[in-house]
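Table S5 (text form). Sequence records supplied for joint modeling of the two-component complex.
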Amino acid sequence: MADLRSTFVGIKSPNPFWLASAPPTDKAYNVERAFKSGWGGVVWKTLGEDGPPVVNVNGPRYGAIWGADRRLLGLNNIELITDRDLYTNLREMKQVKMNWPDRALIASIMVPCEEESWKAILPLVEETGADGIELNFGCPHGMSERGMGAAVGQVPAYIEMVVRWCKQYTRMPVITKLTPNITDIRHPARAAKAGGTDAVSLINTINSITSVNLDTFAPEPSIDGKGSHGGYCGPAVKPIALNMVAEIARDPETQGLPISGIGGITTWRDAAEFLVLGAGNVQVCTAAMTYGFKIVQEMITGLSTWMDAKGHRSLDDITGRAIPNVSDWQYLNLNYVAKARIDQDACIKCGRCHIACEDTSHQAITQSVDGVRHFEVMEDECVGCNLCVNVCPVQDCITMVALPPGTLDERTGKVVDPAYANWTTHPNNPMSRQAAE
Amino acid sequence: MGTTDSGMIGGRLTPGQYEVNFADLHPRLDEHEALVASDRCYFCYDAPCMTACPTSIDIPLFIRQIATGNPIGSANTIFDQNILGGMCARVCPTETLCEEACVRMEAEGRPVAIGRLQRFATDIAMAEGRQFYERAPSTGKTVAVVGAGPAGLACAHRLAVNGHDVVIYDAREKAGGLNEYGIATYKATDDFAQREVDYVLAIGGIEIRNRQMLGRDIKLVDLLARHDAVFLGIGLTGVNALRTEGEAAEGVEDAIDFIASLRQSPGKTDIPVGRRVVVIGGGMTAIDAAVQAKLLGAEEVTICYRRGREHMNASTYEQDLATSRGVTIRHWLQPRRILAQDDGNVARIELDYTSDVDGRLVATGETGILAADHILKAIGQTLEPDALGIVALQSGRIVVDEEGRTSLDRVWAGGDCRLGGEDLTVSAVAQGRDAAQSIHRALMAERHPAVAVAVA
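The corresponding structure-token record, covering 893 residues in total, follows.
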């Protein structure tokens, strides 16, 4: 059996699956249920400063988009940080940590960007026995209008400043949660590192309007006829999150900085992808909010089975394994040639590969051969773009097959060169010509 | 309590049971079911289902319209090709047409529920009384349509769309043809056939004259004198005889009459049915009659077909429906003679076992006897040619060209009466519609005779 035990910035948990700071972790009742279901850790829903708590809207807080059969693909929320009293939360956190000493319990914090505010709250959190803190620099709605959340995360200098205060005023490990609502994720990550953060976690949610009600012309979720942008999450954001995780993992300035991966993780496979791109653990929210806490059982057994099958003994064996394979475009091998191939036995003859290629791409798939409905790749036209693979409803019916070096590419009339060659040295690249001159 | 007494008896069941037995076979999908079903459609390119549909309905498009919350637009897509899309959704043997061709059959052996989705959309549009077509400005032309069945109605509607005045002459009390008289009750409940006739006629410009039978009340030559064109959609009104000793016994009945009486009976309690029913035949009519005999409370219903299961015209789906309702289907049996009691009522049927010898059906010499107090004959219908004059026939059907033109000038034909059809409602609709387009072209060409243009 693969060992799924995780140690993330010194924080131990029986598995790498934590619940992210969000509605599922707002109170002891939910967190107790989560731990009973097997979650390795929990980031408690974000605490605000002492005093009257924030208030939430009293209408809908979530909007969504769906795929076939109304499967939830993307969720959007306009809920704020915890709207419960600070001391109630702290008391419950302490009790839960006592009840579940082997699980990770992290406190998410968001207070105004003033040293005194952070200095005031950190000892209170430390007293609960929490294993660490997560700085919420990510929430894009509501709190950001008050100069917190994403408003901090969008200014690297503020990130560095607040992280420095936290490192100064607490012994607890500091995880800095980043907003994706910026142009280059590396800058806030570098700032967090400069401030001395122990780790970053990402992504927080993305600014979004999920839909508009065409009867009322109001965005959803609508509160008395008006809507506000919310934070987008769920399976739909996973590709964005994966890229941002990889960007930080392979940035020379932040290389090795522990990352807690967040963003649309729904299955063990999603989690494994984050881990191999450099995440030390993962945080989950939308999947739990969609299906309940039991999904962690699928994640644990799925990850474990895959690791066993592949001979990976521990998380260290897989973390970051894909990072060396994430490259800039300019270094991709232009001598690699692949062609689509359709497995005629698996083909159900829906014709979608044909029409996608015919209408929108390279006119490289037949619709009939000898007057019979038949879909086949014309290698002399196929550029290997993979669109047909992506639109085919049957898994593994269309695959991309690499042409072995030495064979003829019927499209270009050239023999596949075994040597690696990229854009930096390509004759069509004006920069490479300049370099040669 | 019902009764299992022998003889032709009505009211074998308690009144409540009739309602249950003759309820809608496949009730309309609700909105959620329709969305789930429509999600399964792959929106195929040059979709095989569409090719398999005799009326070429754009099935991927209408299903996508349902999936996106636009059932009215979906109905419009359906009616563009098939104005009787509502009935076809109920009676089409989809398992041998669109749904057999569905790529999901290839993928997982379970097609998209095309028929039921079609019903979902058309029911909504019809319930809302949504009409999608307006008559073109009047052409001043008038066309006689003989027969108000699927072919005639489809033809009349398309002619009306094109601005022609249409008079439909129909032999029976009600319009609808086999939709009204020839389909099992549970496939077209709630007077659907008449509601559909009303929906089709709502376009205007179509007059229906009932109780006007060709040859009896009207003559083809008179129609040609009064109208610019004639469309024959007269169906097959003759019935094949068994030509078997004892056929005249009481309790021996044509299945189509049995089916028609059931359709016209509101409560069904007045329809007599035997305790032991034998149905002779292997087509849809045999199945419809057998199933409904069972639903009326017959204790035993046996279909006897003279060839094997694979030769039956009834689809596998229909055969399974029958057996699931308790009907026994026996093969390789053909009637030898019918035996009556002293009072003239049928008592038994003696059958020859048959086999196929070099493609020829022969009696093996073995015989068997089945007790029967009710025998239903469903061995096919024929064209009654007397009223057709010099219109050319072949194999007992009207010969037409690819546009539906008969050998007689200004006379078109479609539906079951026409040679080479599939004897399906949907084929009749396609032929009626296409004949209307052909008639339209012919009438417009008359109005604007072609003028030779000199080439410079």
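Note: The domain at 329-436 of chain A is CATH 3.30.70.20 (Alpha-Beta Plaits).
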